[in-house]
Specification:
Length: 139
């Protein structure tokens, strides 16, 4: 994905937020980042390319009985000027949703779930901005 391309934050709120924080959308290798905000859970971001598309995992991790718990994790696929949420998981509530799956070589998409996760993304990004998450570590 060309990071010089202007991202429409209304259509791609997570990608606009992440690029503003310095997440590298052009790196071909797996990358991980940590964004912090005083008084709030850290945000872990991982990027990788698969089948020509940038995949990004965005996750808050908590801990329960020594186990890392996703609260939540979302995975997005990014293309030219768009983002599509394809996965949501919250370990505390036992929720796991896949908006895109491959079955028998065919990609199946749930437009209803993509829309629902897109609405959640806008709220989450608004919260991340208000909390002041900023890049701390890049690996």
């Amino acid at each position: 994905m060309n990071t010089t391309q202007k991202i429409d934050a209304r259509k791609s709120p997570m990608s606009a937020f992440l690029q503003k924080q310095g997440i590298d959308f052009e790196a071909k290798e797996h990358k991980s980042y940590k964004l912090t905000a005083s008084g709030f859970m850290d945000l872990t971001v991982e990027t990788w390319f698969s089948e020509g598309l940038l995949n990004v995992s965005v996750c808050h991790y908590g801990e329960q009985n020594g186990d890392l718990m996703r609260d939540p994790e979302m995975v997005f696929k990014f293309g030219w000027g768009y983002e599509k949420p394809v996965y949501f998981r919250n370990d505390y509530t036992g929720t796991e949703q896949e908006a895109e799956i491959v079955r028998d070589g065919k990609t199946l998409v749930s437009p209803r779930l993509v829309k629902e996760l897109s609405r959640f993304t806008k709220i989450w990004v608004s919260n991340l901005k208000a909390q002041g998450h900023k890049m701390e570590v890049e690996n």
